[in-house]
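Minutes, methods subgroup
Present: GH (chair), OT, SY

1. OT presented the first of two proteins processed in the latest run. Sequence and structure tokens recorded below as shown on screen.
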Amino acid sequence: MSREYDDVQLLAPRFGARTFTTLALTVSLIAGALAAASPAQAASPYERGPAPTDALLEASRGPFSTGQTSVSSLVSGFGGGTIYYPLDTSQGTFGAIAISPGYTARWSSLSWLGPRIASHGFVVIGIETNTLYDQPSSRGRQLLAALDYLVEDSSLTVRSRIDSSRLAVAGHSMGGGGSLEAASSRSSLQAAVPIAPWNLQKSWSGVRVPTMIIGGESDSIAPVRSHSEPFYESIPASSEKAYLELNNASHFFPQTTNTTMAKSMVAWLKRFVDDDTRYDQFLCPPPSGLAIEEYRHTCPSS
């Protein structure tokens, strides 16, 4: 019995039964209203942009207008590239993500991803590698070097827009294998998204970074059975992880605009780099549709 009801009972001898019943009901209603008015769980301080919808995530651009700037090939640790960033300076700082192309490829092969991800409230650096033939371990080090450049180079104007504690990596093919290398060596990263990843190393039991692996069902260069799937399964179940396999997709699916990939990728970055639980709905229950062959997941822990 509630304390409020006990207090009302003490008043019963002073009033008639009808008055007492009315008083008790009033107290009960007030207590219920106060409980309903109690504040909800606080939103993440890193939420950026409006409440997400399918239409917002499937559009070619998110809610933020973006700008871009080039990075010289003379920088240390990687081969230069392009930075994309939100123009809005009223939202506070943004998380940042470095993305590597694959073997023999240049950033231009993935460049559609730069403004698309940035328009959802991220600073994105699409890197050029030191050579076109760099292996995954080298690409992983270059991704980390690019992130260090973003947060440490005092001459970089966009540096003031970046939250250095909220960083992520991604990449295609050997760049995807490189993103696993980066996540394995730097556990402070907030997210990793290997795309059609290729790597001779198959076990990633040391990865603690929330990782979404995106593979293609018809990939003959990095077949999912010998790359994406064992990579996913080797990451501990205690780590947040997801595996998205695109129906009938070849190894080169990231090199043209892919709405299904971009939607899940942005949702993963928003959830784990921005700690924005509004995006849980796009990750768990798992997404489905004709474009998706398979989806495995641990479900984000709020």
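2. SY then presented the second protein from the same run.
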Amino acid sequence: MRRFRTIIRSLIFLILFGVFHYVLPQHDVVRVVNTYQERQDLGDWTRIFWAKPDDQSATLVNRDVQFIQTRKKKTYLLGFIRTDAEEVMVYRNEDTGWGWPFYFKFDTANLQTEADDLQSTAENPKWAVMTHYGWRNELISAFPNAVAIRPVASPDVTIIPWFNILFFIVLAAIVGFVRALWRQFRERSIDPALEDAGEAWDAVDERADAARGRFSRWLGSWRKK
């Protein structure tokens, strides 16, 4: 039973970690190489990795999507450790609108213009911080969605994820508050009810033992005769 609980808790933790890692904002130090627009088919299950289109195109199985090609500084441990090495990273640039996740992004055209303005070469690089959410997966053609971009003086900029820090602080406070409420509810309602049920069961068990004792004595009296 304990092993089963451990497995269930581990699965819940992995699912929550995956959801948070996908939807929470991440920051990459990048050099914009190119921007382009491409027609994308959205007719299979991989549609969940694309932004939900507006009402007028909700039934379409394909649409034009804008992309931003970059050279990104490699990072490890969820972005906490940055190296001098670079890798290719391609971002999609889609509005999220009022849908999930709630970034309320409506400025796709503006962001594409800012990315165009930041294009540079390896000989004369322009560095920028790309804020995005989502994952890059070449197998299923999934791309992280760019949310914002801002120029920086050098690739050695220090990025503090204030939103993520505040989010987890608030989440921890909510979890602690709900846990305290649950403990009070259990102590005031569930535990007394279980205690009363246990006492009632003990009383029933004692009556049953007394009844069995009387029946045994009655049988014993007949055996003596």
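Chair's summary of item 2: Residues 160-225 form one domain.
Next meeting: continue with the remaining queue.
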